Amino acid sequence: MKTLDEYMAMNYRMEIVEDETEGGYVVSYPELPGCITCGETIDSAVDNARDAKKVWLEAALEDGLEIYEPGSLEDYSGQFKLRIPRSLHRALAEHSKKEGISMNQYCVYLLSRSDTALSK
């Protein structure tokens, strides 16, 4: 089993979300379920998150809970195959040609735009 220092040194993904209702920012670690905190500013929220991570890991180690290690981008190839209707394929090809970019680039643009809108 790893030590607290070993877990603290791991690069867990931190999510920061603005709290539009109460003000400030909410920070969580998706790979550490229930590890969540907040702060008035981004800096204070990040500082609080580091403290929350340490407390969460200490409690998990003490209780003998399984602690998942952070994922890595190396686990993802950046490619996936997608079957779409021919009419959509044509529309995407036409739009990408109009923009002067490849269909792959156009689809990445559309996906990133949609992903940003969904995360708000």
From TrEMBL:
InterPro entries per UniProt: Arc_rbn_hlx_hlx (IPR013321), HicB-like (IPR031807), Ribbon_hlx_hlx (IPR010985), TA_system_antitoxin (IPR051404), TTHA1013/TTHA0281-like (IPR035069)
GO BP annotation list: regulation of DNA-templated transcription
A Pfam family recorded for this sequence: HicB_lk_antitox
Boundaries of every HicB-like antitoxin of toxin-antitoxin system domain copy: 17-78
PANTHER family in alphabetical order: ANTITOXIN HICB, UPF0150 PROTEIN SSL0259
Record's protein name: Putative RNase H-like HicB family nuclease
